């Protein structure tokens, strides 16, 4: 039901995500994936996945879709809670939250599922957007991604019914990708994609252009949500309005304005307070190159093997970057190896 109280509660939850996210990303460092920092190709891949995944979900049974999101939430929860609780406690807490949500759904406690699902969405959004921000996603990347999402949302939600079909499919199941404050076929809710972009832009804008840009980005995002809600309340807009068609251009305009004012973006290393990179005079780069050449000439290694190299020696290997890194840890290596695919 569209009421002032429900809209206000949704606004409060979204504002909490944005504010807590800004605090979290500054205070806690998430482990960087072995594949390194975000690049333009990563943004292109993400944009393609956004288009392909909903079509895939519609072809799957609803319980399977719920299970997929449950696993995604479990992994993301562990990631977000790790810096707060430590690895084992974070894993236990993530399993407990996911299991409680599934159990409440099986028992038919719809209100409990609603509350737990909202908590899951909030934690996951903060963790994922913090990871993207800390791994080098630039304001330009976010502006491009938001623009692509705006076009997609226009066709999937504004002009088409793909989003409506998906919402009907996951209705009544746990782990729905919705920050909802009511249940039913037409809940008062914000989609997971909306929440991700609302939280991501203020973080990246703060990193790239300073706190003023971040807080303005946060205010613009929450303000647009309120404007859209007023449209719902007055009957100007219909339910299921494609919010990213509004938020995407707003992010792009802010990016262009801040680039005009500040010029180049602040680098992630400078924002994190890391020392600026310097020219290597130790010869380590040459030794790493020699180690890679040796690894590539080994006859017993497949061409697609990932290797962990320290100086001129291969210390571990595996079929993926993560397995190579873990193999190096098991071998007793305590530093940060150079990981590369042959």
From TrEMBL:
Domain of life: Bacteria
Keywords per UniProt: Membrane, Transmembrane, Transmembrane helix
Residues that span the membrane, as ranges: 6-26, 64-82, 89-107, 113-132, 139-155, 175-201, 213-234, 240-258
Name of the molecule in the record: Uncharacterized protein
């Amino acid at each position: 039901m569209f009421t002032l109280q429900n809209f206000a509660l949704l606004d409060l939850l979204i504002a909490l995500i944005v504010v807590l996210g800004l605090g979290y990303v500054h205070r806690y460092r998430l482990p960087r994936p072995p594949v390194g920092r975000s690049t333009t190709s990563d943004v292109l891949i993400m944009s393609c996945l956004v288009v392909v995944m909903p079509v895939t979900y519609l072809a799957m049974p609803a319980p399977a879709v719920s299970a997929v999101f449950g696993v995604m939430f479990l992994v993301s929860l562990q990631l977000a809670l790790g810096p707060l609780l430590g690895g084992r406690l974070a894993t236990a807490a993530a399993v407990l939250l996911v299991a409680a949500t599934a159990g409440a759904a099986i028992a038919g406690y719809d209100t409990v599922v609603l509350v737990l699902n909202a908590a899951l969405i909030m934690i996951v959004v903060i963790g994922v957007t913090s990871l993207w921000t800390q791994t080098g996603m630039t304001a330009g990347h976010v502006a491009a991604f938001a623009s692509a999402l705006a076009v997609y949302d226009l066709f999937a939600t504004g002009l088409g019914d793909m989003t409506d079909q998906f919402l009907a499919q996951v209705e009544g199941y746990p782990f729905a990708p919705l920050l909802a404050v009511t249940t039913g076929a037409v809940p008062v809710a914000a989609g997971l994609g909306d929440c991700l972009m609302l939280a991501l832009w203020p973080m990246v804008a703060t990193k790239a252009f300073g706190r003023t840009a971040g807080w303005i980005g946060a205010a613009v995002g929450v303000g647009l949500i309120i404007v859209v809600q007023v449209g719902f309340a007055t009957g100007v807009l219909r339910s299921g309005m494609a919010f990213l068609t509004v938020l995407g251009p707003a992010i792009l305009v802010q990016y262009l304005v801040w680039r005009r004012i500040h010029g180049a973006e602040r680098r992630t290393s400078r924002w994190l307070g890391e020392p600026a990179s310097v020219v290597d005079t130790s010869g380590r780069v040459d030794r790493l190159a020699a180690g890679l050449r040796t690894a590539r000439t080994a006859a017993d290694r497949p061409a697609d093997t990932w290797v962990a190299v320290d100086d001129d020696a291969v210390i571990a290997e595996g079929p993926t970057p993560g397995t190579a890194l873990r193999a190096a840890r098991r071998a007793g290596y305590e530093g940060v190896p150079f990981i590369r695919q042959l």
